[in-house]
Design a protein that fits this description.
This protein has 106 residues and is mainly α. The chain is 53% helix and 4% strand. The chain is built from 5 helices and 2 strands, in the order βααααβα. The termini are close together.
C-alpha cells in the first residue's frame, strides 16, 4: 500500500523569506489586475487555490470570474516563482531533509 504525506511547504519545510508571496501577488496583478497586497488577509495553512478564491472574493470578484482565469494564473504564478525564488533565496528548516528521507524509506 502506498502512503501519501502532505506538508504545508513555505513556513513549514522551508522559507522563501517572503519571495513566494511576492510571486503570488505579482501573478494576481498580472492576471486579475489587482493589488492584493493591500488586502487584510492571512495566507498561512492554506493552498494557493483557496488563497486565490478568498483574496479575489475580498477584492470583489465572483467565483466564476476567478475560475475563468485560473489556467492563466497558474502559468503566470509558475513564471513569477521562477523569477522570485531560487535555491539561493530559500532556507530549508533544520531536520527537514532527515524527515523527508525517513518518509521515503517508509
Amino acid at each position: 500500500m502506498k502512503r501519501l504525506v502532505l506538508f504545508d511547504i513555505d513556513g513549514t519545510l522551508l522559507t522563501t523569506h517572503g519571495r513566494a508571496v511576492r510571486a503570488l501577488l505579482a501573478a494576481y496583478g498580472h492576471v486579475y489586475g489587482l493589488d492584493a497586497s493591500a488586502l487584510d488577509y492571512r495566507m498561512d495553512g492554506k493552498t494557493e487555490l483557496q488563497i486565490t478564491h478568498e483574496l479575489m472574493a475580498l477584492a470583489g470578484l465572483t467565483c466564476e470570474q476567478v475560475a475563468a482565469r485560473l489556467p492563466e494564473f497558474w502559468r503566470r504564478y509558475a513564471k513569477e516563482l521562477e523569477r522570485h525564488v531560487s535555491s539561493d533565496t530559500t532556507t530549508v528548516h533544520p531536520g527537514v531533509p532527515e524527515v523527508v528521507r525517513a518518509i521515503q524509506a517508509g
